[in-house]
Amino acid sequence: METATENPDIKCYYCICSQFILAITPGLDVLPRRNAQVSEDKSIVISRKRDQCVFSLDAYRDKYPLLVTNKNKEEVWWVYKCPRCKLPIGYDLENSSQQYTFILNGALHEEPSEDQVTNKES
Hints:
Layout: E1 11-14, E2 20-25, E3 44-47, E4 54-57, E5 60-61, E6 66-70, E7 73-81, E8 88-93, E9 100-103, H1 114-121
Antiparallel strand pairs: 1-2, 2-4, 3-9, 5-7, 6-7, 7-8, 8-9
């Protein structure tokens, strides 16, 4: 079985606390963002259809939904959070029938935080 380090097409992403969160192909940089007319958050859209995107998300989903108001429109978000620091990193929409997962703009990084890596080694 190939690992992410053996397959350069698999991109790994980390929370700002350096917790591994996401392995995905293709990378987030080539995926679409939510339409600004629909939502102001500019989240990255991950399709759950296997032929379009393969990913593994290591985050927990809140037990209760969050009601978010965007441009006079209400959405129900089921928020995913980092298992270590509990920061929100993404969400599912209640009405999306689990076809898409959204990653919040700026929530994930390709490299672990240098400060956190240094602190672990100390």
